[in-house]
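Thread: nickel (II) ion complex, take 2
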Amino acid sequence: MTTDTAGQFVSDVGADGRVPDELVAAYREHGFVRVRGVLEPGLVERFRTGAEAFLEAHRTESLEKQGVFSQLVNVWQRDQTLRGLTLDLRLGRIAEQLAGFPLRLWHDQMLVKEPHNNAATEFHQDRPYWPHAGDRLPLSAWIALVDVPPERGCMTFLPGTQHRVGLRPQDLHHEEDLFAADPSLRWLPRVTVPLRAGDCTFHSGYTGHMALPNRTGQARLAHVNIYMDEATTYSGSEHIVTDPLGLAVGDRLDGDAFPRPWASGA
Ligand code: SIN
Ligand code: NI
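Output below.
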Protein backbone atom coordinates (compact mmCIF):
# COMPACT_ATOMS: atom_id res chain seq x y z
CA MET A 1 0.00 0.00 0.00
CA THR A 2 1.11 3.57 -0.56
CA THR A 3 -0.09 6.85 0.80
CA ASP A 4 0.03 9.34 -2.05
CA THR A 5 0.62 13.05 -1.75
CA ALA A 6 -3.05 13.72 -1.12
CA GLY A 7 -3.00 11.27 1.79
CA GLN A 8 -5.08 8.73 -0.10
CA PHE A 9 -4.80 5.06 0.69
CA VAL A 10 -4.24 3.08 -2.46
CA SER A 11 -2.99 -0.36 -3.40
CA ASP A 12 -2.76 -2.82 -6.28
CA VAL A 13 -4.32 -6.25 -5.99
CA GLY A 14 -1.74 -8.92 -5.07
CA ALA A 15 -1.04 -11.96 -7.26
CA ASP A 16 -3.19 -13.94 -4.81
CA GLY A 17 -6.17 -11.65 -5.51
CA ARG A 18 -5.96 -10.06 -2.06
CA VAL A 19 -5.13 -6.54 -0.95
CA PRO A 20 -2.45 -5.82 1.70
CA ASP A 21 -3.40 -5.85 5.38
CA GLU A 22 -2.43 -2.16 5.56
CA LEU A 23 -5.16 -1.34 3.06
CA VAL A 24 -7.69 -3.23 5.15
CA ALA A 25 -6.55 -1.22 8.17
CA ALA A 26 -6.88 2.02 6.17
CA TYR A 27 -10.43 1.08 5.10
CA ARG A 28 -11.40 0.37 8.71
CA GLU A 29 -9.89 3.68 9.87
CA HIS A 30 -11.06 6.02 7.09
CA GLY A 31 -14.11 4.28 5.62
CA PHE A 32 -12.80 4.24 2.03
CA VAL A 33 -9.81 3.08 -0.01
CA ARG A 34 -8.74 2.99 -3.65
CA VAL A 35 -7.69 -0.25 -5.36
CA ARG A 36 -5.68 0.19 -8.54
CA GLY A 37 -6.09 -2.06 -11.57
CA VAL A 38 -8.82 -4.25 -10.13
CA LEU A 39 -9.83 -4.95 -13.75
CA GLU A 40 -7.14 -5.66 -16.34
CA PRO A 41 -7.39 -3.68 -19.63
CA GLY A 42 -9.12 -6.44 -21.64
CA LEU A 43 -11.88 -6.67 -19.04
CA VAL A 44 -12.25 -2.89 -18.83
CA GLU A 45 -12.83 -2.85 -22.59
CA ARG A 46 -15.36 -5.70 -22.39
CA PHE A 47 -17.37 -4.14 -19.56
CA ARG A 48 -17.16 -0.60 -20.95
CA THR A 49 -18.56 -1.76 -24.30
CA GLY A 50 -21.24 -3.75 -22.48
CA ALA A 51 -22.15 -0.77 -20.29
CA GLU A 52 -22.41 1.57 -23.29
CA ALA A 53 -24.73 -0.85 -25.11
CA PHE A 54 -26.90 -1.36 -22.01
CA LEU A 55 -27.12 2.37 -21.40
CA GLU A 56 -28.13 3.03 -25.01
CA ALA A 57 -30.98 0.50 -24.74
CA HIS A 58 -32.19 1.46 -21.23
CA ARG A 59 -31.31 5.12 -20.58
CA THR A 60 -34.99 6.16 -20.43
CA GLU A 61 -35.51 3.81 -17.45
CA SER A 62 -33.15 5.81 -15.24
CA LEU A 63 -34.43 6.10 -11.65
CA GLU A 64 -32.87 9.53 -11.28
CA LYS A 65 -34.64 12.13 -13.43
CA GLN A 66 -32.91 15.39 -12.45
CA GLY A 67 -29.78 14.96 -14.56
CA VAL A 68 -27.31 14.18 -11.78
CA PHE A 69 -26.74 10.76 -13.32
CA SER A 70 -28.43 8.00 -15.27
CA GLN A 71 -29.07 5.26 -12.71
CA LEU A 72 -29.89 1.72 -13.82
CA VAL A 73 -30.27 -0.81 -11.02
CA ASN A 74 -29.71 -4.57 -11.00
CA VAL A 75 -28.30 -4.71 -14.48
CA TRP A 76 -26.74 -8.08 -13.57
CA GLN A 77 -30.21 -9.64 -13.81
CA ARG A 78 -30.69 -8.37 -17.38
CA ASP A 79 -27.29 -8.32 -19.06
CA GLN A 80 -25.00 -11.32 -19.38
CA THR A 81 -21.81 -9.26 -19.83
CA LEU A 82 -22.39 -6.94 -16.88
CA ARG A 83 -23.45 -9.89 -14.73
CA GLY A 84 -19.79 -10.94 -14.95
CA LEU A 85 -18.74 -7.62 -13.40
CA THR A 86 -21.36 -7.55 -10.65
CA LEU A 87 -20.71 -11.14 -9.61
CA ASP A 88 -16.92 -10.92 -10.09
CA LEU A 89 -15.32 -13.24 -7.56
CA ARG A 90 -12.19 -11.20 -7.04
CA LEU A 91 -14.13 -8.01 -6.26
CA GLY A 92 -16.44 -9.89 -3.90
CA ARG A 93 -13.51 -11.45 -2.06
CA ILE A 94 -11.71 -8.11 -1.68
CA ALA A 95 -14.96 -6.64 -0.34
CA GLU A 96 -15.14 -9.46 2.23
CA GLN A 97 -11.49 -8.92 3.15
CA LEU A 98 -12.17 -5.22 3.79
CA ALA A 99 -15.44 -5.83 5.64
CA GLY A 100 -14.08 -8.72 7.69
CA PHE A 101 -17.28 -10.80 7.49
CA PRO A 102 -19.34 -12.67 4.83
CA LEU A 103 -21.19 -10.51 2.30
CA ARG A 104 -24.01 -10.85 -0.20
CA LEU A 105 -24.77 -8.67 -3.18
CA TRP A 106 -27.38 -6.06 -2.19
CA HIS A 107 -27.72 -4.65 -5.70
CA ASP A 108 -25.62 -3.22 -8.48
CA GLN A 109 -26.12 0.04 -10.33
CA MET A 110 -24.77 1.69 -13.39
CA LEU A 111 -24.19 5.38 -12.60
CA VAL A 112 -23.47 7.44 -15.69
CA LYS A 113 -22.80 11.15 -15.66
CA GLU A 114 -23.61 12.18 -19.19
CA PRO A 115 -21.15 14.49 -21.02
CA HIS A 116 -21.34 18.05 -19.63
CA ASN A 117 -24.02 17.08 -17.08
CA ASN A 118 -22.58 19.85 -14.91
CA ALA A 119 -24.38 18.50 -11.84
CA ALA A 120 -22.73 17.17 -8.71
CA THR A 121 -24.00 14.23 -6.72
CA GLU A 122 -24.16 16.06 -3.39
CA PHE A 123 -22.89 14.75 -0.05
CA HIS A 124 -24.82 11.85 1.45
CA GLN A 125 -24.50 8.49 3.15
CA ASP A 126 -25.87 5.40 1.36
CA ARG A 127 -27.02 3.15 4.18
CA PRO A 128 -29.91 5.41 5.37
CA TYR A 129 -31.62 4.80 1.97
CA TRP A 130 -31.72 1.03 2.41
CA PRO A 131 -34.37 -1.18 4.07
CA HIS A 132 -31.80 -3.07 6.11
CA ALA A 133 -31.70 -4.22 9.73
CA GLY A 134 -29.45 -6.41 11.86
CA ASP A 135 -26.45 -5.70 9.65
CA ARG A 136 -22.83 -4.82 10.09
CA LEU A 137 -21.25 -2.13 7.87
CA PRO A 138 -22.10 -2.61 4.15
CA LEU A 139 -19.77 -1.34 1.41
CA SER A 140 -19.76 -0.40 -2.26
CA ALA A 141 -17.20 -1.00 -4.99
CA TRP A 142 -17.36 2.00 -7.37
CA ILE A 143 -15.62 0.78 -10.51
CA ALA A 144 -14.37 3.22 -13.16
CA LEU A 145 -14.97 1.93 -16.70
CA VAL A 146 -13.35 5.05 -18.20
CA ASP A 147 -10.69 7.36 -16.78
CA VAL A 148 -12.42 9.50 -14.15
CA PRO A 149 -10.38 12.57 -13.21
CA PRO A 150 -12.08 15.20 -11.03
CA GLU A 151 -13.42 17.09 -14.05
CA ARG A 152 -15.27 13.95 -15.23
CA GLY A 153 -17.00 13.39 -11.88
CA CYS A 154 -14.88 11.36 -9.50
CA MET A 155 -15.83 10.84 -5.86
CA THR A 156 -14.91 12.86 -2.75
CA PHE A 157 -15.07 11.24 0.70
CA LEU A 158 -15.35 12.44 4.31
CA PRO A 159 -12.81 10.25 6.16
CA GLY A 160 -13.95 8.61 9.38
CA THR A 161 -17.67 9.20 8.85
CA GLN A 162 -18.34 5.45 8.68
CA HIS A 163 -18.93 5.76 12.42
CA ARG A 164 -21.63 8.44 11.98
CA VAL A 165 -24.71 6.23 12.11
CA GLY A 166 -28.30 7.21 12.90
CA LEU A 167 -28.74 10.18 10.56
CA ARG A 168 -31.93 10.53 8.49
CA PRO A 169 -31.65 9.86 4.73
CA GLN A 170 -30.05 12.81 2.94
CA ASP A 171 -31.08 14.41 -0.34
CA LEU A 172 -28.24 13.99 -2.82
CA HIS A 173 -29.65 16.87 -4.91
CA HIS A 174 -28.99 19.40 -2.13
CA GLU A 175 -25.48 20.54 -1.31
CA GLU A 176 -26.34 21.41 2.30
CA ASP A 177 -28.48 18.47 3.31
CA LEU A 178 -25.88 16.20 4.93
CA PHE A 179 -24.49 19.21 6.79
CA ALA A 180 -27.97 20.19 7.92
CA ALA A 181 -28.34 16.67 9.34
CA ASP A 182 -24.96 16.93 11.14
CA PRO A 183 -23.28 20.37 11.07
CA SER A 184 -20.01 18.99 12.47
CA LEU A 185 -19.34 17.07 9.23
CA ARG A 186 -18.81 20.31 7.30
CA TRP A 187 -15.42 20.79 8.95
CA LEU A 188 -13.93 17.41 8.14
CA PRO A 189 -11.21 17.07 5.51
CA ARG A 190 -12.54 16.14 2.05
CA VAL A 191 -10.55 13.63 0.02
CA THR A 192 -11.07 13.58 -3.76
CA VAL A 193 -10.06 10.33 -5.46
CA PRO A 194 -9.44 10.35 -9.25
CA LEU A 195 -9.55 6.87 -10.80
CA ARG A 196 -8.03 5.35 -13.93
CA ALA A 197 -10.24 3.01 -15.95
CA GLY A 198 -10.11 -0.35 -14.18
CA ASP A 199 -9.51 1.13 -10.69
CA CYS A 200 -12.16 1.17 -8.01
CA THR A 201 -12.86 2.68 -4.65
CA PHE A 202 -14.55 0.87 -1.81
CA HIS A 203 -16.56 3.01 0.59
CA SER A 204 -18.73 1.99 3.51
CA GLY A 205 -22.46 2.57 3.63
CA TYR A 206 -22.06 5.35 6.20
CA THR A 207 -19.00 7.09 4.73
CA GLY A 208 -20.13 10.55 3.59
CA HIS A 209 -19.38 11.11 -0.09
CA MET A 210 -20.23 13.15 -3.16
CA ALA A 211 -19.27 13.04 -6.85
CA LEU A 212 -18.18 16.06 -8.85
CA PRO A 213 -20.00 17.18 -12.03
CA ASN A 214 -18.92 15.90 -15.43
CA ARG A 215 -17.59 18.91 -17.29
CA THR A 216 -16.02 16.87 -20.11
CA GLY A 217 -17.35 15.71 -23.45
CA GLN A 218 -17.05 12.03 -22.52
CA ALA A 219 -19.57 10.11 -20.41
CA ARG A 220 -18.48 9.07 -16.92
CA LEU A 221 -19.24 5.38 -16.81
CA ALA A 222 -19.21 3.85 -13.33
CA HIS A 223 -20.49 0.46 -12.23
CA VAL A 224 -21.22 0.00 -8.54
CA ASN A 225 -21.44 -3.32 -6.72
CA ILE A 226 -23.07 -2.93 -3.31
CA TYR A 227 -22.33 -5.61 -0.75
CA MET A 228 -24.23 -6.16 2.50
CA ASP A 229 -23.71 -8.28 5.59
CA GLU A 230 -24.80 -11.81 4.78
CA ALA A 231 -27.09 -11.70 7.86
CA THR A 232 -28.99 -8.53 6.80
CA THR A 233 -32.76 -8.65 7.35
CA TYR A 234 -35.59 -6.61 5.81
CA SER A 235 -36.62 -3.53 7.81
CA GLY A 236 -39.97 -3.03 6.08
CA SER A 237 -39.09 0.32 4.45
CA GLU A 238 -39.86 0.91 0.79
CA HIS A 239 -37.11 0.31 -1.74
CA ILE A 240 -37.20 -0.39 -5.47
CA VAL A 241 -35.20 -3.60 -5.05
CA THR A 242 -37.27 -5.15 -2.24
CA ASP A 243 -40.76 -3.80 -3.06
CA PRO A 244 -41.57 -6.54 -5.62
CA LEU A 245 -40.32 -9.39 -3.41
CA GLY A 246 -43.23 -9.73 -0.97
CA LEU A 247 -40.97 -9.72 2.08
CA ALA A 248 -42.07 -9.53 5.72
CA VAL A 249 -40.20 -7.46 8.29
CA GLY A 250 -37.37 -9.55 9.70
CA ASP A 251 -36.98 -11.79 6.63
CA ARG A 252 -33.38 -12.49 5.68
CA LEU A 253 -32.28 -10.81 2.44
CA ASP A 254 -30.91 -14.00 0.93
CA GLY A 255 -31.65 -16.40 -1.90
CA ASP A 256 -31.23 -15.89 -5.63
CA ALA A 257 -31.91 -12.13 -5.57
CA PHE A 258 -28.96 -11.53 -3.21
CA PRO A 259 -26.24 -13.95 -4.30
CA ARG A 260 -22.79 -14.58 -2.86
CA PRO A 261 -20.91 -16.54 -5.54
CA TRP A 262 -17.57 -15.61 -3.94
CA ALA A 263 -18.34 -17.76 -0.87
CA SER A 264 -16.06 -20.78 -0.56
CA GLY A 265 -18.04 -23.82 -1.64
CA ALA A 266 -20.66 -21.68 -3.46
C1 SIN B 1 -22.00 9.09 -8.27
O1 SIN B 1 -21.30 8.23 -8.80
O2 SIN B 1 -22.34 10.10 -8.87
C2 SIN B 1 -22.46 8.89 -6.87
C3 SIN B 1 -22.08 7.57 -6.33
C4 SIN B 1 -22.61 7.31 -4.96
O3 SIN B 1 -23.32 8.14 -4.43
O4 SIN B 1 -22.34 6.26 -4.38
NI1 NI C 1 -23.84 7.22 -2.61
